[in-house]
Amino acid sequence: MTATRNAKRSDYLSWDDYFMAVALLSAQRSKDPNTQVGACIVNRQKRIVGVGYNGFPTGCSDDTLPWCREGDFLDTKYPYVCHAELNAILNSVPGNLTDCRIYTGLFPCNECAKVIIQAGIREVVYLSDKYAGTDSVRAARMMFDQAKVACRRLVPASPVVSIQFSQNG
Predict the structure, then answer these.
(1) Which amino acids are annotated catalytic?
(2) What is the pLDDT of residues 112-146, one digit of tens each?
(3) Buried b (16+ CB within 10 A) or exposed e, 140-157
(4) In what side-by-side order are the strands of the sheet with 48-53?
(5) The model scores a pTM over 0.85
(6) Sign of CA pseudo-dihedral 12, 126, 34, 85
(7) I need a surface site. Which of 19, 62, 63, 99 has the fewest CB within 10 A?
């Protein structure tokens, strides 16, 4: 009878899946019609110290600034959007991000790589590397290598994480 009393669930989320799920849930806040990215920063004690998603800076209207991907530079989203990694760092709990890990749905661009390195984050865990061949990602990888920031692609233990707002029972 002791074995039953001490039996724990076996289908709980791993730490990596849990933190990536938080990043992906954060991405659901993004109003970008094409790409939603989230990021979650975790310290050595496995505590979340920052989250963010891609969107316009505070005070800048997402109703008046463009969400387009093509056209004249100022008529696209690119000069205005703050990436998820930047927002997670800016939204982090005041303190030191040295030796933290960042989970993100998409491998960081070169601009985010600079901020990640400067913040002292030592590991990047990502889900997708769909822009792997671009100059931006190639530059990010070069900087991460030189700064000795570890990068690894997460292969989730479970392909789906389900969240319910109501409980039966």
Answers:
(1) 85
(2) 999 999 999 999 999 999 999 999 999 999 999 99
(3) bbebbeeeebebeebeee
(4) 48-53, 38-42, 101-106, 123-128, 150-153
(5) yes
(6) positive
(7) 63
